[in-house]
Design brief:
Layout (H helix, E strand, L loop, with lengths): L1 H19 L5 E10 L4 E16 L2 H10 L6 E7 L4 H11 L6 E18 L3 E17 L2 E2 L2 E3 L12 E3 L2 E2 L29 E5 L4 E7 L4 E9 L8 E9 L2 E7 L1 E4 L3 E5 L7 H29 L1
Parallel strand pairs: 1-14
Antiparallel strand pairs: 1-2, 2-5, 2-13, 3-4, 4-5, 6-7, 7-16, 8-9, 10-11, 11-14, 12-13, 15-16
Helix pairs in contact: 1-2
Length: 301
């Protein structure tokens, strides 16, 4: 019985650690549209998190039921004014990267959906689907034609209570106050802007910089007990993945620095591609002139 109690105790500890693990954003995307004429940017962030825990253990099923009981289907949306803590926390996070920046508008909306899973081979579990959308308007990012984009990699570990008892920045077991990676952590995008993918659309005169951070967190929590004559084989699986992407667009042709982009009125006409085009056209014209001269000489003979 002592051995069995130790096994059960280990299962409880592992379950608590696993279920309290803070999930990071999955399939997240941030889009920032710059406006040089108004010295501003409109930012929209979609942060989607899915946490799935599965087990074939009756004990863990019971533990999981109680651990996940605080999470219920819920939805909320709110526009925060400058006097609220949420607004101030967000502005502090942005200004920490660019002291000249001002947050003018902040709206958050989220949906939380809980689903109990029933799978083959006596496997069951719980899945939490959590969707957060953030809309912001910021000013003070341009100095002339150059935009300071250091704020793109903003992050904050402060509480963001969109409603009573609902902190959208920390998805965790309700009784836990020790959080891991916060939801609003985009430090993965601090890589130099010059290394971002760049595209220029001449038809709209728009430059877009994009960056896929790849899998910044890919962790699987797997625990397996082989079993014995008294206790059957048992497992607990929890997977957490983070793969955010970012897109920043601006009117005009822009070139990137480390934390800045500089907007020009039009792309340089003396680019290598332009030279190549001129050479090709010149070769065709010269070849055509030579062929025409040769043909006239043949006819005159």
């Amino acid at each position: 019985m002592t051995a069995n109690r130790k096994i059960v105790g280990a299962i409880v500890v592992l379950a608590v650690l696993g279920f309290m693990w803070v999930p990071a954003s999955h399939a997240s995307s941030i889009t920032a549209k710059l406006s040089p004429s108004t010295n501003s940017a409109n930012v929209t962030a979609y942060i989607n998190t899915t946490v799935t825990a599965t087990t074939n253990s009756t004990i863990l099923k019971v533990i999981g039921f109680f651990l996940f009981s605080p999470f219920k289907n819920n939805t909320a949306a709110k526009t925060f004014n400058s006097s609220t803590l949420v607004f101030q926390h967000m502005q502090d996070a942005l200004k920490d990267k660019n002291s000249n920046l001002t947050l003018n508008y902040l709206n958050m909306s989220y949906t939380l959906v809980r689903e109990n899973l029933s799978l083959p081979n006596n496997v069951s579990g719980v899945q939490l689907a959590y969707h957060l959308r953030i809309q912001m308007n910021v000013t003070g990012i341009f100095n002339g034609s150059t935009a300071n984009l250091a704020w793109r990699a903003f992050n904050t570990n402060q509480s963001m209570n969109i409603s009573s008892g609902t902190d959208v920045n920390h998805v965790s077991y309700a009784s836990s106050k020790t959080y891991g990676n916060s939801t609003l952590n985009f430090a993965a995008f601090k890589t130099s802007m010059s290394s971002w993918n760049k595209s220029y659309d001449a038809s709209t005169n728009t430059t877009t910089f994009s960056y896929d951070a790849g899998t910044t967190l890919n962790t699987s929590f797997n625990w397996h007990f082989k079993g014995s004559s008294l206790i059957p084989s048992t497992f607990l699986n929890i997977s957490i993945v983070r793969d955010p992407s970012y897109s920043i667009s601006t009117p005009g042709y822009a070139v990137a620095g480390s934390n800045t982009i500089t907007v020009q009125s039009s792309p340089p006409s003396s680019s290598p591609n332009s030279y190549a085009g001129i050479v090709v056209v010149a070769v065709i014209l010269i070849a055509g002139m030579l062929l025409s001269t040769y043909t006239r000489r043949r006819k005159s003979r």
